[in-house]
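worker-03 picked up job from queue 'complexes'. Input manifest follows; two sequence lines, order preserved.
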Amino acid sequence: MAETTLEPAATPAVATRRQSGGFRRGLQHRVLPIFTTLAIVYLMIPIAVMIVFSFNKPDGKFNYIWNQFSLDGWAHPFDWPGLGDSVITSLSVAVISTLIATIIGTMMGLALTRYDFRGRGALNGIIFLPMATPEIVLGASLLTLFVATALPPLAGGVPTLYPTGFLTILIAHVMFNISYVVVTVKARLAGFDRRLEEAAMDLGANEITTFWKVTFPLIFPGIMAAALLAFSLSIDDFVITNFVSGRTNTFPIWVYSIQKNALPVQINVIGSIIFLGAVGLVGLTTLRSGRAARIR
Amino acid sequence: MTAAPHPRAPTRPTLRARFGRAVPYLLLAPGVLWLFIFYVIPAVQMFTYSISTGTLETGYTMTLNADAYATAIDRFGKQFLNSILYGGLATILTLAIGFPVAYTIAFRGGRYKNLILFLVIAPFFTSFLIRTISWKILLGDEGPLLAPLRHGLGLIDANVWLIGHQGIIDGRFTLVNTPIAQVAGLTYNFLPFMILPLYVALEKIDIRLIEAAEDLYANRAAAFRRITLPLALPGVFAGSLLTFIPSMGDYINAELLGNPGTRMIGNVIQNRLLVQNDYPVGSALSFMLMAGILVAVAVYARLLGTEQLTG
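worker-03 finished. Artifact:
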């Protein structure tokens, strides 16, 4: 391939083409930034709509058309039957599933990066499977398992998970979060300088002390990143949850079930609170890690 | 605390001495078990139901017949095609929008790199469902986009021919409940999944390779085609999969932004399992979706010639 570019005959043609470089450079310098700005605007528009329409006072049950400015939604953010409960359920599921998935996933991430064992290569690939499976298939297949626990031949022989509810939501959320945690923690461990641990052990620390005093603090940012990711995936999940939630409502499920009959402004208010909270949290962590990096 | 610095008493191998080579397995056990019980077994169960007969009341018996598959293909072929069509369109559009964006962030982001990346992932901080509802507000007949055009300028109905009849319902120009809105929603919702892997791939490119190509008299187009693009292929591969797989299985955009004629396979699976309690057909459909995607991934990997990607 390299030879073709080195052919002397090609040189004059290349030289003439080079003169159009000014145009191309112009393209790179102006068009690309403008295009990128437009794309970012495209990404931001629905968020802006969500926030703006949280200040709407809809004329009727559906918050689809701008009517007049109002702070009603913000003054009474939970003023709709079932909304408060669904937010509490969402938060509980997100906190508990994040804790479980982060612990289990970090352990797996450690095993996969630091130990050599049979099946390690295979497991490194398999761990991506739940991430590559469409959510709808994950949800549908979990539902078939939960249904099966209540039907013969399994009925009575195993703990029943049907009708579905809080517990099955939790199980599903831990399941889809594990892979994300493993991958995130592995990425953090990949650049780990093991000489730091050796130094600790040379100074007489045993493995457990070394882990808690040296390894853990160093990979903690990775674990935090994994936990944040798991939390946001869990609190936002709709597709899988819809299959395994039964009559229990998380916030997205509540929104989905109500939007056919009404679209209260409170949906936009809660959405805005979650958005601003998440942005604030990420902003804080970035600031802190930025400062830590500068100190180093 | 536990280990005083005492050179004569090496406490180092305790963990390994006690558990030996079991340590990695002990660390892996909870996760592997969880994924086995709640990922592998459900997949097996789903396949079993797809070749079973019965009802939710009487239970299911495995009869090894393929009736559910025949029904699935017979009745829901259109929805499968819709999934491929709209999922594919959304993937192409995200690639067309995402590549220049990722390229700009990677090579020309400068000190705004992190800020732009943050803005790219910002949509993830709101609920997927609320973002889609926002699109419904935005594109609505009396929404911020169409209302001014219709009332202020009277443009819309005159310019109907521009979009073609897809956008017209009852002689009026509308966007909600059309395939246009549905594809726009899908493209929007999965765009960050395309930009991020593209950015990661482009960012890793050693700029000296491009300079070398230019030193060797490649013009910018040739350098892009011969150096940048091949090195970005892993990102194209990952980004397309991360966009195509979830948009194929999506049913929210079809339900909120599309119409009954644009329903995708996800809508049918959801309906079969959650509304009709038709487990054999619902299972058959999602099994076919899964298998179809695996085949598509394999073919796509071959086409891009990226076997080394997975290694």
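worker-03 released lock.
Confidence is low (pLDDT under 50) at residues 1-20 of chain A.
Chain A touches chain B through 103 residues (CB under 8 Å).
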